[in-house]
Inverse folding.
C-alpha cells in the first residue's frame, strides 16, 4: 500500500478546544471514542454481574422453596423505595446532562448533587437493611440462624433447608454488596465532576464526561432493577 | 558476529543517531514510568512478561527434573503440586495472555493503522500498573509457599481443602484480569475510531483483525472468570457454600463458570499469534496473504465460536448426553476457521518470493506445529476418545503444542521481525537462526513423547508414576533442556544488539505496511504527517520494494 | 536392567478396540494433513525461494470454490469423526441390562470398592472377565476420577453426586487404576490395580477371602440402627393396632410412581432415594407431613449406598394392603 503525504493537518494548534487530547484529531473523534469506550466497559460489567445472576438462577431453580422463604424476610417496601430512589436519580443525572447542553452551569452542579444525594439515600437504606440482617442472624457464617417461618421464636428448621436459605443470603450479600460498591464508585466519580462543572467546563460544545458518567449511572440503576424482583419478590404473589 | 541479511544497499542514514525518536525523546525513570506513549508501554510490558516467563520456565524446569525418575525424589508431593500450579498460573495469566497483545499489540496497533497513539493512553499505562499489582499479589503468594490447587482452581478442593495461599493468588489473577480488559477495550475503540484516512476495514493488516477479534473475547469473557474467582475467594474466606456440596453448592457449577472464560482464553492466546504469522508470511513471501478476507473473517468466527465450546473440558464430569453432544459438535466447528487459516498461509507461499530470515523460520515452524496441535484438539473433542484421554499427558501435549509450538513461536517470530523497528538495531543472523532451530527441535522432543504417554494412560499432575513410563519422561526432559537454551540465547543477543547491533534503516526487510513507513525507531508521534491510505494491504511490487529498501527516509522529517 | 518402553496400552475391555480404531483413524488423518502441510511448505520454500534482491511474489485472488472447498472438507471429516466418536461414547456409557453393580468410593487418597456380595477392597478391584459391570462412583470429599487405561474408561467422582461407568473386561490381567482428577497431596499415589480374572478364578477369589456383608444386609442393619424403621414400618406391622404410621412404607417403592405434595409425580429412582435421605423436605409425598429429619452428615457415602441398595431390594406389599395410603384416610 502506498501512502501519500498530506500537509500536516491543523491538529490542535492553539485554537483547539482545551479538552481535546493530543492524540485525537477532532473533538468529535474524541467524543465518539470515549462513548464507545464506556459502552464497552458496560458490556464487561454485564458479563461480570452475569456470572452472579447465572449462579443465582441455578440455585433458585434447585432450591425454590428455601429461596422463597428467604426472600420473604426481605422488606419489599424498602426495596421498592430504593428502586424509586434510583430511578429518580437517573432522571436527575439525565437532567444534569441536559443542563450542560443548554449551558446552565449552576443547574449542572445542582442536578449532579441531587443525583449524589439520591445515591447516598439508596446506600443509607441498604445499610438499614444490612443491619436488620445482622440482628436477625441472617448473615451467612458462624452466627447464621434460620427458624421456621423466618422468625426467631419459631422452631429451628431442618438443617439442609437452613443451608439452602443461607445460600440465598450469601448470594444476596454478594450481589447487593457488589452493586453497592459500584454505586459508591459512581458517587465518587460524580463528586469528581463537581469542580469542573462549577467552573463551567461542561457546556453545549463539550459535555462528554457527563454523558459517559450518565451511561454508567443508568447501568448501575438497571442492575438494581433486575436485582429487586429477583431477590425481594420471589413468590410474592403467594404471600 | 554476523548481522542479519538486509538489503545490501541500505546505508543507515548518517544523522540517524541524532534524529528524535521515542527512545531518546526523554531519559530517566520517570519518563518511562509515567509515559503515555504506547510504544514505551509496549516495552514496559515486554520487560514484565519476560520476567514472568522466566519464573514460569523455572517452575517448568523443576517439573521436568522431578519427572526424570518414576519415584518422587526431588521434592515433596505437596511442593510438586505447588510447582505445577504456579507454572500454570504464571504462564497462562501473566505470560501467554498478555504477551503478544500487550507488547507487540501495544507497539504496533497505532502504527499499523496510522494513528498517533491508542484511544486511551492513560488507560494503557494504568493497565500495565494493574498487571504489576496482580503480579505482586501472585508473587507474594509464591514466595510464601504458593498455591496447590492446579491453575484451574477446581472446587471444593480450592475452597475447602487446600492449605495454601488460594485467596492471594485468586486476587492476583482477579486484578490481572482488569489489565487484560483495559487493553482489549483500548484496542477495540482504537481500531474503530482512529484509523488513518483511507484505511478501510479491508485495508487493515491481518494483525489488526486478529487483535480486534482477541479484544472482543477479552471484553466478553474475562469478567466472568473474574466474578467466579471472586466467589471462590469469598467462599474460602467466609465458608459460604456456593460450590460446597455439603452446604448445598455445586462443584460442577464452578467448572461451567470457570471454563466459560478459560476456553475463550485459549483463543486470546492464539489469535494474536495468528495475526503475527499472517504478517510474517506476507513479508517473507513478499506477497499478499492468500484469501485475505477469509482469513479476516476466520478470526471473527474463531472468537464467536470459541464461546460455545467450553463444555468439552467436562466430558467426564457428569454432564448430560445432550450437553456433551452439543459441545463436541461445536468444537468440531471451531476447528474449521483455524484450518482455513493454515491452508491460506500455505497457499501464500505458492508463487511467493521466500527468504529464510529468522522470523520466517519461526512462522513456518508455527504452521507445522499448530497444525498438529490443532488436529490433536479435534481428536480430543471426539467424545469416545476423550473419555480415555481426558486428564492425561495427551491433553498436556496438545495444549503445549498450541501454546508453546504456536503462541510462543509466533511471539519469538514477531519479536525478531519487529525488533529493528522497536530498537533501531539489527541482531545476529546466525545465532538467531540457531536459536530458532534449537527451539523447534527441543520443543518436539519435549512434547511429542507426551502424546504417547497420554495414550498409555499417564495422568496429569502426577508427582510419581509407574516405572514403565520413565523412558518417555526422560526424553521429554532432555527436550526441555534444549528448548531452554533456545529461549535463553535471544535474551543475550537482543541485549547485545542494543549496544553493538548494526543500526537498522527504516525497512530492513523490504516489507509493506504503515509501520515500515517511518523511522526505526519511530518518533514519539509515530508519523510526522498523517498518512493517507490508497492501496490494498500487502501490495508488493518490485518497484515498491526497491523504493522501500533503498531509500534512506522517504518521510520528510520536520524538526519542531 | 531392562528398560521398558511401552508405546501402546493393552486393550482389555469391550470398548477398548472401538476406542483404539477411532484413535488410529484420527491419528492417520492428523498425520496425513500435518505431512501434507509440511511437504507443501518445504516444497514451496525451495521452489519459490527468493532469487533477486527486489523480487516479489505473484499475488492471485483466492478463488471462492477453493476457499469454500477447503472449509467444507475439514468440516465434513470432523463431523464424521464426531458421529463415530459419539457412538463409541454412548457404547461406553450405555448399561446393558444384565450389568452387575459394584460400588466405588473415592476419598483423599484411596479407593474403596465393594462387590455386590459385600466383598470389600481397598485400591484393588477384582472383576470377572466377560461380565458387564456397572461401577457406581461416589466421593467423600473432593472431585476424584476413576481411570482404568486398559479398559479406556474414566469417570469423575463428584462429591454430592453419584456417577457411573460401565465396562466388560475381555482379557484376564492386571491393569492400572489411576485417580485422574487432581485432588491434592497424594493424588499421584491414589492408584491401584484392577485384576480381571477368568470367571472360575473370580469365584475362587471370592470364596477365599472373607465375605463381607452384602450391601443389602448392611443396608438392612443401618435401617434399624438409624431408626428408619420406627416410621417406615415394614409390612404387616401395627396398622391394625391403631397406631398411625408416620411415613410411607418403602416396600415396592423403587421404580414406582410417586405423587408429591406439590402435585408433581415422579418415578422413585436412585436419585430420589438418595435425596429423600439427605434432603427429605425437597420432595414430600402427597398425604404425608414433612416430618422426616435429614440424615445429611450422619451417613457416609458408603452407608448411603447400602441404604439405597436395601430399599431397592424391598419387594412390593402383600396383596390386600393398599400400599402407601396415609393412615387418616377420612380427611
Amino acid at each position: 500500500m502506498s501512502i501519500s503525504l498530506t500537509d500536516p493537518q491543523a491538529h490542535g494548534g492553539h485554537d483547539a478546544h482545551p479538552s481535546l487530547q493530543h492524540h485525537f484529531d477532532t473533538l468529535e473523534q474524541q467524543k465518539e471514542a470515549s462513548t464507545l469506550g464506556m459502552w464497552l466497559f458496560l458490556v464487561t460489567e454485564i458479563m461480570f454481574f452475569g456470572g452472579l445472576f447465572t449462579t443465582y438462577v441455578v440455585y433458585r431453580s434447585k432450591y425454590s422453596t428455601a429461596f422463597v422463604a428467604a426472600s420473604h424476610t426481605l422488606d419489599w417496601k424498602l426495596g421498592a423505595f430504593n428502586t424509586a430512589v434510583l430511578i429518580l436519580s437517573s432522571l436527575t443525572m439525565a437532567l444534569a446532562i441536559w443542563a450542560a447542553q443548554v449551558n446552565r452551569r449552576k443547574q449542572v452542579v445542582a442536578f449532579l448533587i441531587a443525583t449524589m444525594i439520591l445515591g447516598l439515600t439508596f446506600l443509607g437504606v441498604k445499610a438499614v437493611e444490612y443491619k436488620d440482617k445482622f440482628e436477625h442472624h441472617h448473615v451467612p457464617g458462624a452466627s447464621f440462624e434460620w427458624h421456621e417461618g423466618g422468625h426467631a421464636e419459631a422452631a429451628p428448621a431442618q438443617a439442609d433447608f437452613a443451608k439452602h436459605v443461607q445460600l440465598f443470603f450469601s448470594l444476596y450479600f454478594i450481589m447487593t454488596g457488589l452493586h453497592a460498591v459500584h454505586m459508591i464508585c459512581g458517587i465518587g466519580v460524580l463528586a469528581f465532576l463537581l469542580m469542573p462543572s462549577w467552573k463551567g467546563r461542561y457546556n453545549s460544545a463539550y459535555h462528554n464526561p457527563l454523558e459517559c458518567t450518565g451511561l454508567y449511572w443508568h447501568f448501575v440503576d438497571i442492575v438494581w432493577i433486575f436485582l429487586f424482583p429477583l431477590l425481594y419478590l420471589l413468590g410474592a404473589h403467594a404471600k | 558476529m554476523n548481522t542479519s541479511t538486509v538489503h545490501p544497499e541500505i546505508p543507515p542514514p548518517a544523522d540517524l543517531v541524532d534524529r528524535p525518536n521515542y527512545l531518546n525523546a526523554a531519559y530517566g525513570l520517570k519518563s518511562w514510568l509515567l509515559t503515555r506513549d504506547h510504544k514505551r508501554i509496549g516495552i514496559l510490558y515486554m520487560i514484565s512478561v519476560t520476567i514472568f516467563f522466566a519464573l514460569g520456565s523455572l517452575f517448568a524446569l523443576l517439573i521436568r527434573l522431578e519427572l526424570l525418575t518414576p519415584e518422587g525424589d526431588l521434592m515433596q508431593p505437596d511442593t510438586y503440586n505447588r510447582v505445577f500450579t504456579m507454572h500454570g498460573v504464571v504462564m497462562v495469566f501473566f505470560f501467554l495472555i498478555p504477551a503478544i497483545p500487550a507488547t507487540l499489540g501495544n507497539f504496533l496497533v497505532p502504527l499499523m493503522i496510522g494513528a498517533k497513539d491508542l484511544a486511551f493512553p492513560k488507560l494503557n499505562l494504568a493497565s500495565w500498573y494493574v498487571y504489576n499489582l496482580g503480579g505482586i499479589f501472585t508473587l507474594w503468594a509464591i514466595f510464601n509457599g504458593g498455591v496447590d490447587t492446579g491453575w484451574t482452581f477446581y472446587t471444593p478442593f480450592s475452597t475447602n481443602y487446600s492449605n495454601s495461599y488460594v485467596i492471594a493468588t485468586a486476587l492476583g489473577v482477579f486484578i490481572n484480569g482488569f489489565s487484560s480488559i483495559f487493553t482489549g477495550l483500548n484496542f477495540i475503540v482504537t481500531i474503530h475510531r482512529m484509523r488513518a484516512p483511507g484505511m478501510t476495514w479491508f485495508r487493515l493488516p491481518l494483525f489488526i483483525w486478529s487483535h480486534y477479534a482477541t479484544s472482543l473475547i477479552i471484553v466478553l469473557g474475562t469478567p466472568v472468570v473474574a466474578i467466579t474467582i471472586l466467589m471462590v475467594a469469598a467462599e474460602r474466606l467466609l465458608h459460604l457454600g456456593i460450590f460446597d456440596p455439603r452446604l448445598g453448592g455445586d462443584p460442577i457449577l464452578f467448572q461451567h463458570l470457570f471454563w466459560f472464560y478459560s476456553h475463550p482464553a485459549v483463543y486470546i492466546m492464539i489469535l494474536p499469534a495468528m495475526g503475527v504469522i499472517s504478517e510474517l508470511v506476507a513479508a517473507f513471501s513478499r506477497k499478499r496473504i492468500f484469501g485475505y478476507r477469509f482469513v479476516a473473517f476466520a478470526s471473527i468466527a474463531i472468537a464467536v465460536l470459541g464461546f460455545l465450546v467450553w463444555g468439552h473440558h467436562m466430558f467426564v464430569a457428569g454432564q448430560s448426553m445432550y450437553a456433551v453432544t452439543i459441545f463436541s459438535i461445536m468444537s468440531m466447528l471451531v476447528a474449521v476457521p483455524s484450518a482455513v487459516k493454515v491452508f491460506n498461509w500455505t497457499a501464500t507461499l505458492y508463487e511467493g518470493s521466500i527468504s529464510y530470515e529468522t522470523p520466517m523460520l519461526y512462522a513456518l515452524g508455527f504452521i507445522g506445529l499448530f497444525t498438529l496441535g490443532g488436529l490433536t484438539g479435534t481428536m480430543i473433542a471426539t467424545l469416545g476418545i476423550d473419555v480415555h484421554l481426558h486428564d492425561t499427558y495427551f491433553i498436556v501435549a496438545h495444549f503445549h503444542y498450541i501454546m508453546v509450538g504456536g503462541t510462543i513461536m509466533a511471539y519469538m517470530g514477531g519479536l525478531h521481525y519487529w525488533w529493528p523497528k522497536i530498537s533501531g538495531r539489527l541482531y545476529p543472523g546466525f545465532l538467531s537462526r540457531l536459536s530458532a532451530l534449537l527451539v523447534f527441535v527441543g520443543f518436539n522432543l519435549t512434547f511429542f513423547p507426551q502424546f504417547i504417554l497420554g495414550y498409555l494412560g499417564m495422568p496429569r499432575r502426577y508427582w510419581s508414576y509407574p516405572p514403565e513410563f520413565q523412558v518417555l519422561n526422560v526424553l521429554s526432559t532432555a527436550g526441555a533442556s534444549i528448548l531452554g537454551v533456545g529461549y535463553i540465547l535471544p535474551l543475550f543477543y537482543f541485549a547485545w544488539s542494543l549496544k553493538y547491533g548494526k543500526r537498522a534503516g527504516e525497512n530492513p526487510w523490504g516489507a509493506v505496511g504503515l509501520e515500515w513507513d517511518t523511522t526505526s525507531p519511530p518518533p514519539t508521534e509515530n508519523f510526522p504527517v498523517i498518512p493517507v491510505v490508497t492501496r490494498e494491504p500487502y501490495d508488493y511490487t518490485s518497484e515498491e520494494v526497491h523504493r522501500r529498501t533503498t531509500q534512506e527516509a522517504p518521510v520528510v522529517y520536520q524538526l519542531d | 536392567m531392562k528398560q521398558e518402553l511401552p508405546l501402546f496400552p493393552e486393550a482389555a475391555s469391550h470398548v477398548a478396540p472401538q476406542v483404539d480404531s477411532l484413535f488410529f483413524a484420527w491419528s492417520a488423518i492428523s498425520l496425513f494433513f500435518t505431512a501434507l502441510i509440511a511437504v507443501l511448505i518445504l516444497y514451496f520454500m525451495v521452489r519459490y525461494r527468493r532469487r533477486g534482491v527486489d523480487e516479489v511474489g505473484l499475488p492471485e485472488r483466492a478463488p471462492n470454490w477453493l476457499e469454500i472447498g477447503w472449509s467444507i472438507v475439514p468440516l465434513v471429516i470432523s463431523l464424521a469423526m464426531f458421529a463415530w466418536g459419539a457412538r463409541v461414547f454412548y457404547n461406553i456409557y450405555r448399561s446393558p441390562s444384565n450389568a452387575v453393580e459394584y460400588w466405588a468410593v473415592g476419598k483423599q487418597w484411596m479407593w474403596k470398592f465393594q462387590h455386590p456380595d459385600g466383598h470389600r477392597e481397598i485400591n484393588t478391584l477384582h472383576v470377572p472377565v466377560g461380565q458387564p459391570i456397572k461401577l457406581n462412583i461416589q466421593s467423600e470429599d473432593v472431585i476424584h476420577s476413576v481411570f482404568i487405561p486398559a479398559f479406556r474408561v474414566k469417570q469423575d467422582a463428584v462429591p454430592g453426586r453419584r456417577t457411573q461407568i460401565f465396562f466388560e473386561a475381555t482379557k484376564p490381567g492386571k491393569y492400572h487404576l489411576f485417580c485422574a482428577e487432581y485432588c491434592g497431596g497424594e493424588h499421584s499415589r491414589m492408584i491401584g490395580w484392577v485384576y480381571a480374572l477368568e470367571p472360575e478364578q473370580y469365584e475362587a477369589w471370592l470364596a477365599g477371602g472373607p465375605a463381607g456383608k452384602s450391601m443389602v444386609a448392611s443396608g438392612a442393619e443401618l435401617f434399624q440402627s438409624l431408626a428408619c424403621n420406627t416410621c417406615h414400618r415394614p409390612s404387616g406391622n401395627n396398622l391394625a393396632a391403631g397406631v398411625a404410621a408416620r411415613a410411607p412404607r418403602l416396600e415396592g417403592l423403587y421404580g414406582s410412581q410417586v405423587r408429591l405434595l406439590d402435585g408433581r409425580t415422579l418415578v422413585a429412582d436412585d436419585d430420589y432415594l438418595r435425596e429423600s435421605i439427605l434432603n427429605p423436605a425437597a420432595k414430600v409425598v402427597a398425604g404425608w407431613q414433612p416430618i422426616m429429619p435429614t440424615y445429611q452428615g450422619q451417613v457416609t457415602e458408603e452407608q448411603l449406598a447400602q441404604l439405597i441398595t436395601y430399599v431397592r431390594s424391598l419387594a412390593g406389599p402383600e396383596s390386600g394392603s393398599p400400599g402407601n395410603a396415609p393412615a387418616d384416610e377420612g380427611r
Notes: Chain A has one domain: 27-232.
